[in-house]
Every structure is written in C-alpha cells, then in structure tokens.
Write a structure and sequence with these properties.
Structural class: mainly alpha
Number of domains: 1
Protein name: V-type proton ATPase subunit G
Family: Belongs to the V-ATPase G subunit family.
Radius of gyration: 46 Å
GO cellular component, one term: vacuolar proton-transporting V-type ATPase, V1 domain
Organism: Postia placenta MAD-698-R-SB12
Strand content: under 5%
GO molecular function: ATP hydrolysis activity; proton-transporting ATPase activity, rotational mechanism
Distance between the termini: 138 Å
Number of strands: 0
Largest sheet: none
Amino acid sequence: MATQQSQSIQTLLEAEKEAAKVVQRARQYRVQKLKDARSQATKEIEEYKRLKESEFQAFEASHAGNTQSSQTAVDQETQIKLQEISEAYYANKDQVVAKLLDRVVLVKPELHRNLKKAS
C-alpha cells in the first residue's frame, strides 16, 4: 500500500509539474500575443501619423498662396493708411499749433465758481 500511495503521490507530482508547464506556456503565449498586439498597434499608429501628416502638408501647400496674397494686401493697405495719416498731419499741423498757442496765450481771468456763490 505504501508503494501504491508513493506511486499516486508521484503521479500527482508529475501532473502538477505538467500543469505548471502548461500554465507557464499559456503565460508565455499571452505575453507574446501582447507584444505582437503592441507592435501591430505601433505600426498602425505610425501609418496613421504619416497619412495625416501628408494630408496636412497638402492642405498647407494649397493654402500657402492665400496667406501670402493676404499678407501682401494687408501690407499695401497699411502703406496707404500711413500715407493718408502723413498727409493729414502735414495739412493740419499749422492749424493745430495755432489753436494750441491761442489756448495757452489767451487767458481770461475769472473768479472761481465757488467764490461767486459765496458773495
């Protein structure tokens, strides 16, 4: 009976070792599948990035002319406005200086408004 128990224990130990090997293989398989999935996902992400980058480059190239022409138009408008402001300055500067001098030089002495009310 001792040999039968010993043999049963031995069979159980062998079965346990075999089960441990199966579990280990399953873990390795799972780890490998995860690595494969990650590498596949990385490849897909890189491909998607390249696609979107090429779309962006095409969009930017098609609209680059619009920004340059808009900038040219804004620059021309700015030059025109600066010219108008300069002309207005030179046309009115003598009148403005004269008005300022009149205000500074012509002083009308008057009593303070509070002083008038008190008397």
